[in-house]
Amino acid sequence: xxxxxxxxxxxxxxxxxxxxxxxxxxxxxxxxxxxxxxxxxxxxxxxxxxxxxxxxxxxxxxxxxxxxxxxxxxxxxxxxxxxxxxxxxxxxxxxxxxxxxxxxxxxxxxxxxxxxxxxxxxxxxxxxxxxxxxxxxxxxxxxxxxxxxxxxxxxxxxxxxxxxxxxxxxxxxxxxxxxxxxxxxxxxxxxxxxxxxxxxxxxxxxxxxxxxxxxxxxxxxxx
Length: 223
Fold this sequence. Notes:
three-stranded antiparallel sheet, Protein Transport Mog1p, Chain A, seven-stranded antiparallel sheet, 10 strands, 23% helix
């Protein structure tokens, strides 16, 4: 009986579905890239800033708080300040000079009278506080006439703002006016507010008009 040699049959590998090999290679590359990127960042490589950029949007300036009855909003034409003012008062543009600085100013007062009144001016350069009483006295005498006499100096708060307050009187044509000046730093310069009335009626005007105006004063950049 003849013995035939056995023929070896090749072992066939399991067939791989089409496309799976390519996807496996891509997946492996992505994993390796991810590991390499993580190691690079850990060694101090550049990172991605996920903080949103600040959007420069002009904020609508408005007075602080709620308007008292019979008060309305006044917004400065340069968008530097806003406040509530009695609807029976008007306003006028002027200037004020102190410490060799002249700044635009706005004066609020009832129509046809000089007092009571409140004036706001914003100076680009700071005013010297240690000499303010002397410089304000000289400035108000030049602006209004009469003789200014300083009284008290205190630190106070109106609304959201702290102020240096300077109280005094102005003797004008035989009539005594009480006058208060307030100053505070403002973006490298100074905000000046001063208000006055006849000494006999000053306390009433302060309660009814000046304090509500000061408490509502909003300054650009401070809200």
